Amino acid sequence: MDEELLQKGILRLKWAEAHMPVLAAVRERFRKEQPFKGLKVGMALHTEAKTGILAITIAEAGAEVRLASCNPLSTDDSVALALREEYGLDVYAKKGETSEEYYANLNSVLDMNPDFIIDDGADLIAMLHTSRQDALPNIKGANEETTTGVIRLRAMANDGALKFPVMAVNDSRMKFLFDNRYGTGQSAFDGWMNATNLMVSGKNLVVAGYGWCGKGVAMRAKGLGANVTVTEVDPIRAIEAKMDGFTVKKMVDAVKDAEIVITVTGCKDIIRMEHLEVMKSGCIMGNVGHFDNEISKTDLNALAKGVTRVREFVDEYELKDGRKVYLISDGRLMNLAAGQGHPAEIMDMSFAVQALGLEYMVKNCKDMDNAVYTAPDELDYDIARLKLEAMGVTIDSLTDEQRSYITGWEEGT
Ligand code: NAI
After folding, report:
1. pLDDT in tens, 266-286
2. Are strands 40-44 and 64-68 parallel, antiparallel or unpaired?
3. 346: CA distance to ligand 1 center in Å?
4. 343 CB under 6 A from ligand 1?
């Protein structure tokens, strides 16, 4: 065993733990109350330090846990080793999995015959409905972490195909308002800078998608001094981007002088042939959307006469007409593949929603339909109160008169 790697993983877990006070409070209660005693929980999440703390929290609450990664490039091998050796968890993940290894690891999670699933992107849940229906009878419910997974699950529910209740953790305000916006906003550039070691300031930077993640990426890009252009398909979000001070264009126009393109739409083929054909030479493309299909590698390869790995996480595509364009981490979410993912303080909130959402699911799944649910507001408020306390911030509360004023209708002025 690689002792140095193990110590690195242990330290990374301890660093994350020290910056996740909300999850620590949940964990302390879970240790006493054992809400998951006797249950098996199968998880597919980016296997890095913050996820490790969530997995440990669930195990300490009494569950048997198996963890695989939800992306072939997002595992921190030091953390995976530490979770196995120091914390005795079953972890099936390594950085740089082949497609076969990725699905073999997801299958290993389902081999435990879990009672509950925690998924990120819904690959595990999709397998339960297709190739692994053998594990379906024991499943009582699942949590889903990200926008793309929730979209897939809503589509399944609408088709009447979903076979158990699912909690859309992503749709809790204590998740998407912070994780998607501030988390992706910061970690996209952690990955970008680590991959390139280049300047953002002064560059023409295009953000595709002005959802919760795109807003964060655009805001941080502006703060770093880039000239930011946003592309959208939703007219309301396009107006939001415009009024937030960004240039809004069609992608085919934006790429002509773009030096950096960051896709974060959850949709596919955002950069395709028609864009690559007019893209400025030297443009560096990176994706932070869930899947690696936002930048078409098929079209890139069709236009390229050669591909060279010029840095650890950067491929240079030399195009047949002599232009050169660059792709970070093979189009996979660069904040995790080339960076360290969201800050621990952010995942503290997201994973508190996961932990408390799972507790809610365990208590209530018998009475839930095979549908997609959002966690009750009270859960968001509990987490927000704990987070404020940890941040040392106190806020006002309503007086009795104010409460009756804002809930009543008789008093006008
Ligand atoms: P969202 O639904 O809030 O926003 C997506 C935006 O993209 C929408 O405004 C939509 O109109 C726009 N869009 C869709 N197709 C487009 C197209 N063809 N061209 C331009 N814009 C288009 O979703 P959110 O929460 O911002 O998530 C986006 C993606 O990021 C998802 O795949 C999600 O799973 C992923 N995600 C990644 C994280 C990470 O750590 N890298 C963290 C959280 C989410």
Report:
1. 999 999 999 999 999 999 999
2. parallel
3. 18
4. no
